[in-house]
Amino acid sequence: MIIERRAAERGQADHGWLRSAHTFSFAGYYDPQWMGFGPLRVINEDRVAGGGGFAPHSHANMEIVSVVLSGELAHRDSQGNAGVIRAGDVQWMSAGHGVEHSEMNGGATDPVHFLQIWVQPNQVNATPQYGQEHFAFASRLHQWVTLAAPEGRDGGLPWRQDAVLFGRGLRKSDATTRQLDPTRRYWLQILGGELEVELGGTVRQLNAGDAIGLVDEDGELALRQLAEDEVQLLWFDLPR
After folding, report:
1. How many CB atoms lie within 10 A of CB 214?
2. Does pTM top 0.90 for this prediction?
3. Residue 208 binned pLDDT confidence (cut-offs 50, 70, 90)
4. Which one of 117, 171, 212, 219 is at 20 to 30 Å from 187 when CA atoms are compared?
5. Domain extent listing, the chain
6. 25 phi and psi, to 5 degrees?
7. 92: which DSSP letter?
8. pLDDT tens digits along 112-127
9. What percent of the chain has pLDDT over 70?
């Protein structure tokens, strides 16, 4: 089964300082058909205006990942972690038994554009953890780069779930593949550019903000870059 999630169909929120597109039900946006995808619970594409941000608030038992596309995101939490996350950086916070944090635009004027991702953990009430790594977009060209994986496998951030998050970039006419295992499920999120995907002879075109989910699928998924703009994407390999 292939599930399409088009960018224009996502839930929308505009708070002035924050414009957000919700892939799954979140806050004031509720759609019973879009409550998550396996343990993948939230993908919000956020744009926070200069000087704005999320004031201190609490979370528990959630793996929270921020992927910064442009601008700067300033983090501070109750565990003593603080820093600025910039384009190409990936931030991970395992809320565990509970943590309070704030995420503010690190600049006074320019917006920060990032994806906020929540994954349900496979253990609860653990000790909160935090990590931040730089995965330059250029380093993702021509190869799959592990951004998050159990126990930090292959250089990824060590989130608490039997799932792997990969990043990949494609330039003009580049192509790549992913081999599908029907005992797993997959989510492909397009960050920018135009992409053609093909599985079993069926071809789809995806643009920035679009996504597809794959369940009970095997075979090889082919991905080809279209048009002029570089494609950047995320690939979630999730438990069935």
Report:
1. 22
2. yes
3. very high
4. 171
5. 10-135
6. -55, 135
7. E
8. 999 999 999 999 999 9
9. 100
